[in-house]
Amino acid sequence: MTQHTQQLFTGERALFGAQSLEISHSVFFDGESPLKESTNIHLKHDIFKWKYPLWYCKHIRSSHLTLTEDARSGIWYTKDITIADSLIQAPKTFRRSEGIQLTNVELPNAIETLWHCKNIKMVDVSVHGDYFGMNCENIEAEGLSLSGNYAFDGAKDIYLSNVTLLSKDAFWNCENVTVENSTIIGEYLGWNSKSITFINCTIESSQGMCYMENVKLINCTVIHTDLAFEYSTVEVKTNSIIESIKNPIHGVVEAEGINEVIFDDPEIHSERTVITIKASE
């Protein structure tokens, strides 16, 4: 494997089509697409300062990278990439890529990041930005911290554990999602989605979990949540008081208390939803 150390790369397509390179402590200063169409590249302690650094690449192993804000739209159409211990300040990173593994990565400007991607694993990733994870498939995340609205819109086959999401309209139009041991805060959680399961989660959401098919809450704490489950099919077991529920289609809701139950749509038959208030211990 050819090695480049402490190099300054300039100009468009500086290392276009590179094969089997190890690049360390180097700067990609200007010029679009410096590593486009490259394969089997190892990157360590490198800095990318301009657009489209890793398009149409394969088999990228990297750590201690910095993508500055101008390295926008940095990783598109790329397959099999790992990034560890890195800072990605650039927006719109990861588009139509697959085989992505991120470990201890910060994305403080992650607007429109991780779109239309497949086979993603994230461990201890911090994200700030709207529209993260749109239309992705097969996502696993442990220790994700995400602040930004419209997260995971249209995504499917998601498993999240020990995450914190501060996100209005999270999990809209999703399918097959499981979230465990997590905190979710944001209005209008999960609308128009199906087969969504929350286990041991704390949820705060005005008008959350409406227009959903097969939404499950198992041993969850639901706080300051009103007008929940409208036009949804539900299997809900909480250990808390729910502010209000409105017009669930059918299913089971079990809670320590429900301050208000609303059935005001003549097309909804209240007897199809079994509501149980658990006795105090």
Notes on the structure:
This protein has a domain at 149-281. Helix content is 0%, strand content 48%. The protein has strands at residues 2-5, 8-9, 19-24, 27-28, 39-44, 47-48, 58-63, 66-67, 79-88, 98-107, 118-128, 137-142, 145-147, 156-161, 164-166, 175-180, 183-185, 194-199, 202-204, 213-222, 233-238, 241-246, 250-255, 257-262, 273-277. Strands 11-12-14-16-18-20-19-17-15-13 form a ten-stranded parallel barrel. Strands 22-24 form a two-stranded parallel sheet.
Set out the fold topology.
Blueprint: E1 2-5, E2 8-9, E3 19-24, E4 27-28, E5 39-44, E6 47-48, E7 58-63, E8 66-67, E9 79-88, E10 98-107, E11 118-128, E12 137-142, E13 145-147, E14 156-161, E15 164-166, E16 175-180, E17 183-185, E18 194-199, E19 202-204, E20 213-222, E21 233-238, E22 241-246, E23 250-255, E24 257-262, E25 273-277
Could you say which structural class the secondary elements and strand pairing correspond to? mainly beta
Tally the helices. 0
Helix proportion range:
under 10%
Overall pLDDT: 97
Low-confidence spans: pLDDT under 50, at least 5 residues?
none
Give me the count of strands: 25
Strand content: over 45%
The H-and-E topology, N to C, reads as: EEEEEEEEEEEEEEEEEEEEEEEEE
Shape: elongated
Distance between the termini: 66 Å
The biggest beta sheet reads: 10 strands, parallel, barrel
| Strand order, sheet with most strands | 11-12-14-16-18-20-19-17-15-13
Rg from alpha-carbon coordinates: 22 Å
